[in-house]
Model the fold of this input.
Amino acid sequence: MASRFDGQLRWLHKVRLYPTCAQERALVTMLRVTRELYNGLLQQRRDAWTTRRVSLPSREQYAQLTELREAEPRFAAVYRECQDAVLHRLDLAFAAFFRRVKHGETPGFPRFKPAARWNQLEFPHGDRALKFDTVQRRVRAPGVGSIRLRKGRVVPEFGRAFLVTKNGRWYAVFEGHRLTSPLPATGCRVGIDRGIRVLAALSDGTTIENLRPGSRRRAVVERHQRALDAVTVKDAIGRPLNAKDPARIAAVRRLARAKEREANARRDWLHKVSREIVRRFDRIALEALRLRSMTRSAKGTSEVPGVGVRAKAGLNRALLDAGFGILATLIREKAEYAARTVIEVDARYSSQTCAACGCVCKESREGPCFTCVRCGHAADADVNAAQIILLRAESPPKSAPGTARGRQHDAA
Ligand SMILES: [Zn+2]
Done:
């Protein structure tokens, strides 16, 4: 489908909102009504599926929604397009469900949304629902009124928009498009691999640390965690008995905010690192993520560390892995915007392969050091792996060095 945004990149602009108490109540009501709608429509579809084995067409529910709005004032009070978006969201959930059924999988049925997992209002045509004042200090939302905005960069033309709440704060997210803005060529190329003890290593010998784990923010998080533990009364298997206690709710929120700030600091750091990498290099080689995740099963995933992996080591590893995942995503995004080339590489055995002679041997790797058992090449293990990533990106895939050279020889 052709659109006016062809050849442009999707981007999101997030702005903090400062609703008054009355406005916040209106927003919370809208969340409650849309969630109720989602769960109600889902119930209908579940019933249709379990009793009659039919999938309820969404146009039928669309018509019912119109009737519901006429009958129930609290539904009529919520902007119609937000409700249409709820129906669309349900359609997407069911489309994914039936696609997996068709492929012979046994997916879980789309689930009811608890309040904790329902935190945004979607405006599919945000530009006609949300109106800025001329200086973009306030935005008018249907059914809420004119909400004060954080003063910041000017929001350009947008289409879809969301009002989102997180840890007691509200944000508006505007979805727009922008043209790529190519950076001047530098003639430099780089391979990047996830490190063993550092966040990432570059083939030019640089290593990138994760944001220092012993930082002040970490201490704040731990303090709030202890404060939460102190006000929590637990039953025999560790579930909190006083979940509704206002003191505990406040402690939960303080801990969530401290964690959010820590995550923001780390993300900010990753933005800076990725921006610098994209500025410096024209061609960037990264591991293809799907390939790595298949070979990592023995050690478990970040959520479920494998047997025998020490809890603390597993946690550090998980933090580094999550950090590298975000870094790689940011590099891909910024590279696309700057018209840089990203090459996806099969990273298997990159940590055991010698960058000097190509010998693959497990014994070459010893902790942070790499010493080739064949040629004696010695290097930082992470940097060596990053160099392998770069070598693989620059040479034809799936061919050993010998055969590639042989074929070139034949041609000449
Ligand atoms: Zn070697």
Summary: The first helix runs from residue 21 to 52. The pocket of zinc ion is lined by residues 354, 356-357, 359, 372, 374-375, 377 (CB under 6 Å).
